[in-house]
Amino acid sequence: MTEGVGLCQRRGGPIEVIRPGDPVLFEVGEEHWHGAAPDRLMVHLAINEADDHDAAEWLSPVTDSEYLVVSPHTD
Asked: Of 24, 33, 44, 51, which has the fewest CB atoms closer than 10 Å, so is most exposed?
């Protein structure tokens, strides 16, 4: 995270609020989503390490109901 306020969630885990300077590491193959918090912006740098496999496997988009299921305090 470099700017703004974001949210991320690992499959089956809680929604986490992320802020500038927060490092976030997702393991290879770990299903997750990340994006800006509602009514906020988010700027981040993503680095993928890959040898002989795809660096990322894109799954289906997060629905509004999944995204808004929990409203963590982002102020």
From this structure: 51
- pTM, 2 dp: 0.78
Which sign, positive or negative, has the C-alpha torsion 67, 25, 16, 2? negative
Q: What is the mean pLDDT of each run of 10 residues along the chain (75 residues)?
A: 93 93 90 90 86 75 77 63
- Taking the C-alpha atoms of residue 44 and residue 48, their distance in angstroms, rounded to an integer, is 13
Q: Which letter does DSSP use for residue 73 in this model?
A: -
Fill in the DSSP letter of residue 66: H
- Per-residue pLDDT, 50: 72
CA distance 29 to 56: 8
Q: Say if residues 33 and 11 touch (Cβ distance below 8 Å).
A: no
- Looking at the structure of the chain, the number of domains it has is 1
